[in-house]
Amino acid sequence: MKIVIAPDSFKESLSALAVADAIETGLRRVLPDAHIVKIPMADGGEGTVQSLIDATQGTLHTTEVSDPLGKRVAAFFGVSGDQHTAIVEMAAASGLHWVDLDKRNPLKTSSYGTGELIQAALNLGVKHIILGIGGSATNDGGAGMLQALGAQFFNYHNQLITEKISGGILDQIARVDFSIIHQKFKGISVEVACDVNNPLCGERGASAIFAPQKGATPNMVAILDKNLQHYAHIIQQNLNTDIATPAGSGAAGGMGGGLLTLPHVQLKSGVQIVLDTVCLAEHIADADFVITGEGRMDAQSIAGKTPIGVARTAKQFGKPVIAIVGSLRTDYEVVYQHGIDAVFPIIRQLDTLPETLANARENLISTAQNVAKLMTLA
């Protein structure tokens, strides 16, 4: 019997690999001779670097970068086992968690540190970059990131802007020179994990929809949106590139749009990027069972989350899919319409949240053991 275990992490509790290990332990108590393949998964958000390092036997690297307000901090990125691909999470350098609640102001925050993180990866000779862009504190259209990578922005006095570009000074940009950055990215492909389809500007744009979560007042939102419109106009004028209207250009404070100025960039579903990177379909093709999971399953799980991505892949081969999850919300049953055949929550008794998180491994093992007993009945 071949069983593929492909879970996401259980947030604040266990990494995807630790989840897979616990499930394997439970299964082997009943099925000691089963052929078990463990593939740590992610959806392009938090945990993607760790999952893809684990899945490809890669390495974790740390470098010093600027946080959203310019303070020097240590941030991480991953490199795949074959040294070909870098995995970068924008939040590691430019995440909201770096900025204290009373200092959150997307007029002042910059994605410069994300550019430094990407540059550190390029210095290692990678040819492919997977970039997750969730959880950012910025609304600068990715201009700070591009600036760190060599893009030049000039003001109306034809002077090079040397301060780190933030959402509040995009209106100062009069022209751009991307010759250095375009040369740097010759032969470099970039896949951006992007699961929103918002445009850059307007009522569904980056500023209106996401900036309030980053500390923007209604007045700030209006300024930020106007500045992004100006920025998009300058980019169109100088590079003949539309960054305003493509679906996803408004993701991560306009980072999606900014990245479209690079030569070989694709905005894709985060979970699809991971599925392709770990070659999940090849592992599932001859499996008897597929087990996936996440910390909490609910109706939102069908919107680009790992278990549904795994399930849809499995259903291409007609494989049964079991989800082992930390907890369930009452609206979870919609997942049965998207390839999940059975769902097992791991909580065995009424515990406090800290106790539940602490007991996750043992609860996973126990639940997987019971799942294995059911498999023997098949």
From TrEMBL:
GO BP terms: organic acid phosphorylation
Organism: Alysiella filiformis DSM 16848
InterPro entries given in the database record: Glyc_kinase_flavodox-like_fold (IPR018193), Glycerate_kinase (IPR004381), Glycerate_kinase_RE-like (IPR018197), Glycerate_kinase_sf (IPR036129)
Keyword Transferase among record annotations: yes
Gene3D superfamilies (UniProt xref): Glycerate kinase, domain 1, Glycerate kinase, domain 2
Identification of the protein by name: Glycerate kinase
SUPFAM superfamilies attached to this UniProt entry: Glycerate kinase I (SSF110738)
Superkingdom as given in the UniProt entry: Bacteria
Pfam families: Gly_kinase (PF02595)
Keywords for the protein's UniProt record, in alphabetical order: Kinase, Transferase
Keyword Transferase annotated: yes
GO molecular function: glycerate kinase activity
Family: Belongs to the glycerate kinase type-1 family.
